[in-house]
Design a protein that fits this description.
Elements lengths: L4 H8 L5 E7 L8 E7 L17 H12 L5 E7 L1 H7 L1 H15 L6 E5 L10 E4 L7 H24 L5 H4 L5 H10 L23
Parallel strand pairs: 1-4, 4-5
Antiparallel strand pairs: 1-2, 2-3
Length: 207
């Protein structure tokens, strides 16, 4: 289970406001990518907080409420939309969302712990922590906030385009989603730079 060991080690170096950063939505064929930045208070505990991918959707919602209503927790969430993903590529768009989330923190972080590899030209000193959402409580908290935020966005898109089933698969390339793409063609929220969306030449564009 993740803990605060990485955060405590940084505080020994005089870095006190440590932001954990994680993203959700790199792999789907539709919708934005979301990133969250979270600064936890000293001595923070939260039973059950872990990598969002290991937690059921109902439990993620409960953890989201716990994290976002605690006044001692500083958090932000940001997105990069479908157009930015297609223009920049998914990796750069993910990094853009991460930068937006980190820059929105007030006060600014002293240092960041980012899930995955280091991010080039990031505005704050940081460490890339591979599988960090299973190691750092700050990153795990960010993973929950990013995932729940993005899932809520996809439920909104589902109401706009119910034929694709976004609320069920969050835009991932499931069998049902691929069949809907074959029948209807991509809508305005589908990532044109992703296969198989890029292969489809059907006229429907969602308006």
């Amino acid at each position: 289970m993740p803990d605060l060991s990485l955060e405590i080690a940084l505080k020994v170096r005089g870095l006190f406001r440590i932001a954990g950063i994680d993203e959700a939505g790199r792999g789907p064929l539709a919708g934005p990518v979301a990133a969250a930045a979270v600064v936890l208070p000293e001595g923070f505990t939260c039973p059950g907080l872990d990598d969002s991918k290991k937690i059921s959707a109902p439990k993620r919602e409960l953890l989201y409420e716990r994290l976002t209503t605690d006044r001692e927790i500083h958090w932000t969430v940001a997105t990069a939309d479908r157009e930015e993903i297609d223009r920049l590529n998914i990796l750069r768009a993910t990094h853009l969302a991460m930068r937006r989330a980190a820059e929105a923190l007030r006060p600014a972080p002293d240092h960041c712990l980012i899930d995955g590899l280091p991010v080039r030209d990031f505005p704050f000193g940081h460490d890339g922590i591979v599988k960090g959402d299973g190691l750092s409580l700050s990153i795990a908290a960010a993973s929950i906030i990013a995932k729940v935020t993005r899932d809520r966005i996809m439920r909104e898109l589902d109401r706009e385009f119910p034929q694709f089933g976004f609320a069920k698969h969050q835009g991932y390339g499931t069998k049902g989603h691929l069949e809907a793409l074959r029948i209807h063609g991509p809508c305005c929220h589908h990532r044109r730079s992703f296969q198989p969306v890029a292969q489809l030449a059907l006229p429907f564009d969602g308006g």
